[in-house]
Design a protein that fits this description.
Strand content: 25-35%
Helix content: 25-40%
CATH architecture of the largest domain: 3-Layer(bba) Sandwich
Number of strands: 19
Bound molecules: NADP nicotinamide-adenine-dinucleotide phosphate
Number of domains: 2
Radius of gyration: 22 Å
CATH superfamily of the largest domain: FAD/NAD(P)-binding domain
Length: 328
Amino acid sequence: MTREVVIMGSGPAGLTAALYAARANLSPVLFEGLTPGGQLMTTTMVENWPGMRDGIMGPELMAEMRAQAQRFGTEIQSIEVSRVDLSQPPFLIVGGDGTEVRARAVIVATGASALLLGLPSETTLMGHGVSTCATCDGFFFRNKAVAVIGGGDSAMEEATYLARLASQVTVVHRRRELRASKIMQEKAFANPKITFMWDSIVEDISDVGQGAVTGLALKNVKSGEPSTLAVDGVFLAIGHRPNTALFAGQLEMDQNGYLITRDGTSTNVPGVFACGDVQDHVYRQAVTAAGSGCMAALDAERYLEGIPRDTYETKSQGAASLSMQNEK
Ligand code: NAP
């Protein structure tokens, strides 16, 4: 049986797309993959989700979103997608266990993964002083000392953001030159709260025993000299990898592997839409991912109804009545 919509990914983008698609009676199937809930599952308190005045734990927020999508009829498959054929509709989605589903429209919300250093202590202390998102977690480090690892634009952006909150920010970079753009470098260099530790790598993060970050064990890669740095938090900013390997050769990507969307959430394949971090390396917020998930579901709905995009772009009344149906 051909389904109307298949959604891949179960972060805020995928689950919001599922909620809207389910409420539009499209009976979506959602493949949640092997890391259900996405990046928020490794966060502790989320304080910037609108409407949650006292904040909400990341895993709890994702459990609520999942239950809400299911309540309106989303069928959730706890399977990783292993192969897709998007050459022509109905599109083929194959699960790792051999499950095959065909769909008239597909929403890709497979997200991006923050790159990690690969230290056991980093995984244990993730969400307990180790973070991959300054906008999400910076607030917990007001008047505290933090380190940012990396030398690219993300590291400079995170360091500059954190300098507004933290007492001291140390950027630890493995070389003497930054990869970041000149303007971002200059902004960081000019900030009196930001200092740099060059040619240095993190060998370990303390203190797993206490369940909190107390410092870093560093090594100078040129001299081999070990050192320590006392910090209360460490922000990893060594890059992200969009989860797009499945779509190689089928969907258009930029040079970093992010899916290219145009006219809202459309990809280069009509009927295939993308939302959330898999197509956004700029904002990367749960709320922006959820917003684009909503857009993808509305775009898919209109595609399935055969409504050309220029019709609903220009005839605002038609678009309004469609959205109102969804908001009821
Ligand atoms: P990036 O440019 O790939 O930089 C990653 C940084 O982390 C590099 O300095 C790299 O060191 C370091 N690194 C990588 N692996 C490491 C490891 N295992 N241990 C220690 N250090 C490691 O990533 P990004 O900064 O996330 O930026 C990604 C893209 O988004 C770029 O195109 C960037 O321009 C863009 N971006 C733009 C803005 C903006 O304009 N506002 C903000 C953020 C990102 P090396 O330099 O030695 O390789």
